[in-house]
Amino acid sequence: MPKGIPASGKRVIKVTAKRLSHDGKTMTVDEWAAAIGLTANAISARLRKGWPVCDALQPGRNWAPGRVFTTKYEVSGGREVQRIIAEKAIGKPLPSGAEVHHVDGNGRNNDPSNLVICQDKSYHRLLHVRTAALDACGNANYRKCIYCQQYDDPANMRVNRSAHHVQCKTAYEYNRRSK
Ligand SMILES: [Zn+2]
Ligand SMILES: [Zn+2]
What we know:
two-stranded antiparallel sheet; 37% helix; binds zinc ion
């Protein structure tokens, strides 16, 4: 029989139907892809490159093996230690999408008093925005203008994902056009 042709009657098993175990869960590549927000092809490509399963199943297009774990966070058994400690504290797995924040900004200080569980990425991001504001100007509610870089009361600003003074934006647009 020529190579590459399956024995008759046998269904060709798609690579994406392969089951992978990680984080105490076993799912197909397709299911993992849906869970972490990547395509099944992206996960398959990582596995073909010889990445360990725990790295292949990390969300984020720019993830590379060892990238965050060796620099920013402590890792044990392929998992971020702060997640393991947070799960011990609540006595169950973290809800999907949950992230663990380090209060003092040191990703390797996993003392339970330094950890805050965030229900999702946007809440986690908000904590970072508020911590930066508190450090910079003493008021966690203030936001930084992306044009003049000054912190101010959000009541004086336009706030979306970022914040700016209307007059700073006007000045910026004016300068850009007159160049
Ligand atoms: Zn954080
Ligand atoms: Zn401004």
